[in-house]
Design brief:
Elements lengths: L12 H13 L43 H23 L10 H6 L6 H22 L9 H11 L2 H13 L5 E8 L2 E8 L17 E7 L6 H4 L3 H7 L6 H7 L1
Antiparallel strand pairs: 1-2, 1-3
Helix pairs in contact: 2-4
Length: 251
């Protein structure tokens, strides 16, 4: 399940969308670059068989004081880089998959060869999740009308929506993510362990393909330098860095 948008140089728009549809759903590409997933702006594609780590879409200190500079530098430059490296190392073992988009691999994760499946799950998931995450963050944006309307309809109020998301994030045991998704016209919340995400195996039920609009990384590496063991402080302050403009674009 899942959905996604990005503008990075190695996310090549239309061809990847067609590629995902062909691989995931057995849809024959028609050559008209028509996206196979609603509101999918682009997918993450390898370049010459290798995925690459794009720069952060803003300076590492751009989210201060809510997310500190050192956390951003290590989180992006070390953790995210390691996911990319290990994903590439795994795909060397399966050259036939080296031209697939990352989304393509993840929606079909259970069908991948066993010798690389878990590595692609963990490190491919890590690459997708963090790429999405960086784009979800920005200081100073305002919640837009589409989200306000949808969240109010789905949860009764914005306040209730936020409270539910915080509670869900705090309830994740160990490392993982909480996600806001749109499915069947409703705003929903789901969690995933480790680096799993709502995309994984979504190709099994294309009609149930959700649109991911927000995710929060609750791995300790996302907050421990600043908040130590107080995940609640990180989660409650997270709303200050949500890129509401991006969410409005995704909806
Ligand atoms: Fe992370």
């Amino acid at each position: 399940m899942k959905d996604f948008k990005t503008s990075r140089k190695n996310f090549i728009k239309a061809s990847a969308l067609v590629g995902l549809g062909t691989f995931a759903f057995g849809i024959e590409a028609k050559g008209n670059n028509k996206p196979t997933r609603e509101n999918q702006a682009s997918d993450i594609l390898p370049i010459n068989g290798k995925f690459e780590l794009a720069p952060l879409p803003y300076p590492a200190n751009a989210l201060e004081p809510f997310i500190d500079t050192q956390t951003m530098e290590i989180h992006h430059g070390k953790h995210h880089q390691a996911y990319v490296n290990k994903l590439n190392d795994a795909l060397v073992l399966m050259p036939s998959l080296q031209n697939k988009s990352l989304e393509n691999l993840l929606v079909n994760i259970s069908d991948l060869p066993e010798n690389i499946r878990n590595t692609v799950r963990n490190h491919g998931g890590g690459h997708w999740n963090h790429t999405f995450f960086w784009k979800s963050l920005k200081v100073g944006t305002k919640m837009g009308p589409k989200f306000t309307d949808l969240a109010s309809k789905s949860f009764g109020s914005i306040e209730q929506c936020k409270a539910n998301f915080e509670k869900l994030s705090l309830g994740i045991f160990g490392s993982g993510w909480a996600w806001l998704i749109v499915q069947d016209g409703q705003l929903k919340m789901v969690t995933s362990a480790n680096q799993d995400n709502p995309l994984m195996d979504a190709g099994k039920e294309p009609k149930r393909m959700p649109k991911v609009i927000l995710g929060i990384d609750v791995w300790e590496h996302a907050y421990y330098l600043k908040h130590k063991n107080k995940r609640a402080d990180y989660v409650s302050s997270f709303w200050n860095v949500v890129n509401w403009d991006e969410i409005e674009t995704l909806l």
